[in-house]
Design goal:
Length: 300
Amino acid sequence: MKVTILGNNSALPAFGRHPTSQIVTVYGEDILLDCGEATQIQMQRFGFGWRKMNHMFISHLHGDHYFGLPGLINSMSLLGRTAALHLYAPAPLKKIIDDILAVADTVLNYPLHFHPLPEGSELLVDTKSFTVTCFPVQHRITCHGFLIERKTKGRKLLPDKCREYEIPAYYYGKIKQGGDYERKDGSIVKNEWVTEDGPGPRKYAYCADTLYNEELVQYIKGADTIYHECTYLNADADRAASRFHSTSLEAARIAYLAGAKQLLLGHYSSKYRDVQAFQDEAATIFANVQATIEGAAYEI
């Protein structure tokens, strides 16, 4: 499970940085979190297609978090997508998308299922591989964060061990499902002899634009990795509060309170050229922190 940063700036593109967007990859499926301007260009740049993407999530309706969406969903249609796409976003976005498609006389080649976000916290997606839950954060307009939880996968087959115990290849499927193997002489090859533990559960919390708010800790407690916006450095804490954003120190406090293992920072204001200062500042409170870089993939 990993997260790849497509855009890590705030409202204005600056210094080669783009508005917010990132992709979380779970067992080969790509999940899009926010879709700022140029998201599809960044997807191409960093090697992402659309065939592995079935779920998109928009945190709120400030343009730097969704202006890239109309172009992306249209491109998917032009490129021949037919599989259904699920979009989870604030309710008013449906009319925006419908109007854009209508004035362009555009009909998508695939079903676009729109799921309005609730007011509070709610389980949105539950697949065999992962779940996605939304939770409220405190911004100038209604805004949500998202908690993505990877489920435990079954046992991992060890082919060399299977050959050592003379297990035929056609039986590998049952081994993967947890079964033992009975040899011709009646002896039993235990499953744990020819397998190892598969990937365990993981939690990734995406804390979108928000004022410092300790109430969100209840939703992200125990997350392995937390992404928390840090639009400003601590010297601009008053400006951050007045604009319902956070500082790098405040992001670090949230990660500490939540008991996270790793903190990722982003949503930098265009007033800052060098983002290393965000990491240095946060590290005074939370040691395992990284100021995200576009194109970088971070293990969760």
